[in-house]
Amino acid sequence: MALHTVAALLQAQVPGVPEHRITDIFKPLASPAQSEANIAWLTFAITAGIFVVVATLIVYTIVKFRRKPEYDVLQEPPQVYGSNQIEAAWTVIPILIVFVLIGVTARVVASVENASPPKSTLKIRVIGHQWWWEVQYPDYGITTANEVHMIAGPDGQVSNYIQLQSADVAHSFWIPQLAGKTDLIPNRDNYIWMDPREPGVYVGNCAEYCGTQHANMLLRVVAQTPHDFEEWAANEKKPAVDDPQATAAKAAFLSLSCVNCHNVSGTSARGKFGPDLTHLMTRQTLASNMIVNNPENLKHWVNDPQEMKQGCLMPSFKLTDTELNQVVSYLETLK
Description:
Layout: H1 3-10, E1 19-20, H2 31-64, H3 84-113, E2 120-129, E3 132-137, E4 142-145, E5 147-151, E6 158-166, E7 171-174, E8 182-184, E9 190-194, E10 200-206, E11 218-224, H4 226-236, H5 247-254, E12 285-286, E13 291-292, H6 295-303, H7 305-308, H8 321-331
Helix pairs in contact: 2-3, 5-8, 6-8
């Protein structure tokens, strides 16, 4: 697909809660991110102080010991063979600075990693695939994809604990305003927790090179009030909408190879290889958050995924116009 066409698809506005699109570790909106931002500011302060001291000494030396016009051009300047006090200072002081930074960093890492979950904790499992995110809620029996819904609470009494796994290669889960990077490693479980202070959409990405479409393995965390989250979860637990007006379109979808990779609850589609489509149209984006989820973009995506996301594991089935319209028509009912 031409670059200008992709750009046009991305320009569409996504309805709903405001997006925190500033992926900036210095604008933290959760406790882990706040702790990590504090370390960053401390490191900047110390290194800025070192820069000022070193730069000042260099300027002083240049001015104080520059060659003056009255000096004999051939005269050798006084030779200085070192100072034990100065050498001790520039050895001991950097060592102390390094130990301070190591100590503070270790303390913050330990406090984040070993934090005890509050009374109200939402458990989430995120599984990285090439190149999309599977999201499960074990306590709710929900499986969705690419958008991680969690609970926001300004009082810190609600937290979200995320189990991170990989189905293929190493990935990395990173929402800069909520927490630091945590890797997803095959055959290993890692964990991370977040307590967003404000409802909204937080954007991030996979931070570990994982193949051709690594740059387009984007992340969205949708932080909601407890009431809004429960409403979302209640809808997600329902089987797929069975629209009587889409009977022919549903039959066409179920007759195609889509069912080998995708699950649609309440139908014969039981695939587990690709994202769950049961409530596809409740998601704000498609293709792992590359494009806005609307009928036009959905049709482009189903028609030829390789044109939008070259190398992705969803092939183009070269559907006829009739088949394409029927599939898209059915998918639009999955709310």
